[in-house]
Amino acid sequence: MTVESSALYDVPGPKALARHRLYGFLALVVIAAVLGWVVWMLFHTNQFTYQKWTAFQYKGVQRLLLDGLGNTLKAFGWTVLFALPFGALFAAGRLSDHRPVRWVSTVVVEFFRAMPLLVMIFFIFVALKVEPLWALVAGLTLYNGSVLAEVFRAGVLAVPKGQKEAAFALGLRKTQVMTYVLVPQAVRAMLPTIVSQLVVALKDTSLGFLITFEEFLHAGKLIATNLDYDLPFIPVVMVISPIYIGMCLLLSWLAKWLEARGRRSPKEGATPIAEAGPVLDAQG
Amino acid sequence: MNVLTDNWSTYWHGFLGTLWLTLVSAALALVLGVVIAGFRVSPVKPLRAFGTGWVTVLRNTPLTLLFFIVVLGLPRFSITLPFFTFAVLALGCYTSAFVCEALRSGVNTVPAGQGEAARSLGMTFGQTLSLVVMPQAYRAVIAPLGSVMIALAKNTAIAGSFSVVELLGTYRTINELGYSIIWTFVWIAVGYLILTLAISALFNVLERRVAVSR
């Protein structure tokens, strides 16, 4: 059966199958009607005229879009570069034996997770008068770094207790226990979650649009509001959205692939590493 | 402190705007999320495909892009609505994908044997759903749903840049009056903290009420 076994439905008999086919047919009709309406609307409002699409033939416009995409990826790259160490640092802080360190880390991590990302970006941009790129990267780093700190911490805590005890019994010091025993296993188990969080970071680079950072969406807006090309808004959306969604999808698939690979136990017969449950909202 | 007292009505309006936006979008997201989750677990293939497509696309779309499309794109189809409605549409659709996933994983935590047992007792589909599956799924759903709602409240900040009156947008008005920009943001931050903490408290209460060790 194509339907995964679920508590909701019985395995359908011939009558139910016929009924499902009927529903399926009706659903297809409705979906086709909606799609047809959208396509009709696109034609009706003259979105496929030569004038509206001609802009994309110009080198300058292509350059603009590519530069925008480059800036988006640049902001993303810097964010990854800063957020991972930030997360590691504060995860270590939250797991520290020293109470003040633990306290400070907890406050920092909880605060930046509770604040809307855009508020931080605007604060850094408007109040601290930082350049758009660095305001964006700083905001993204603080937010995603804090979320990653929680991911790392959950990962370390999810390593079976025996591992830590065994390492201490061998006479390793606490730093060694952490770096040689706990962290490698934690990173392995948390890799899909980490990549998922990077998808959030990539999506959120588009917030740079709101602080006039010249990223992908900004380039799109420039073209879309150009009267010479007859305000090609819909064409721009049709070019930009697939690229944005495609980039995020690729990263999401990487996360899914890593997860599937991790579920396959590392060595034949070895016990799979405990999976830490989702502790966080995976949303931007 | 006088930044807050002097601009109380600006802040208050902004806060109410954010609150209202969160509530209305949450309602839309919940309704849509339930419908899409229903599609995704249904035995009808086209509906399942539609649900999967909806969730996959929306979860991988930057919310700013979605706002961009809804606020600036729909008017090209000569659909003109108030900015508030546009914002609710964008936020509601975006969040519905996450609501759907929370609900679906909740339903999937209920073992198939529960449904089989209910059906073998002669329960109808409605009874199976409302008396057996939902009460169990509910418990697994509350916590993730809380996170989704907190994220929604934080995401409403984006609407301010698309001509909706809300809390973050108040900084422009207050900044023009020449108040300390740092303190302006401190009070905005406090406003958001009040909202997110209230939501998390609400969901904690809900969670505690249904917490049963299984």
TrEMBL record, chain A:
Any one GO cellular component localisation term in the record: ATP-binding cassette (ABC) transporter complex
Broad class of where this protein is predominantly found: membrane
Domain ABC transmembrane type-1 residues, every copy: 69-255
Membrane topology of the entry: Multi-pass membrane protein
Gene Ontology molecular functions: transmembrane transporter activity
InterPro entries per the UniProt record, alphabetical: AA_ABC_transptr_permease_3TM, ArtM/GltK/GlnP/TcyL/YhdX-like, MetI-like, MetI-like_sf
TM stretches of this protein: 22-43, 75-95, 107-128, 134-156, 177-200, 233-255
Family matches, as CDD domains: TM_PBP2 (cd06261)
Domain of life: Bacteria
Protein location: Cell membrane
Pfam family, one: BPD_transp_1
Keyword set, alphabetical order: Cell membrane, Membrane, Transmembrane, Transmembrane helix, Transport
Entry's Gene Ontology BP terms: amino acid transport
Family as reported in the entry's similarity comment: Belongs to the binding-protein-dependent transport system permease family.
Protein name: Amino acid ABC transporter permease
From TrEMBL, chain B:
Record's bilayer topology term: Multi-pass membrane protein
A GO biological process held by the record: amino acid transport
PANTHER family reported in the protein's UniProt record: AMINO-ACID ABC TRANSPORTER PERMEASE PROTEIN YHDX-RELATED, MEMBRANE COMPONENT OF AMINO ACID ABC TRANSPORTER
GO CC annotation terms, alphabetical: ATP-binding cassette (ABC) transporter complex
Name of this protein: Amino acid ABC transporter permease
Domain ABC transmembrane type-1: 15-203
Transmembrane segments: 12-39, 51-73, 79-100, 140-162, 182-206
Subcellular compartments: Cell membrane
Gene Ontology molecular function terms on file: transmembrane transporter activity
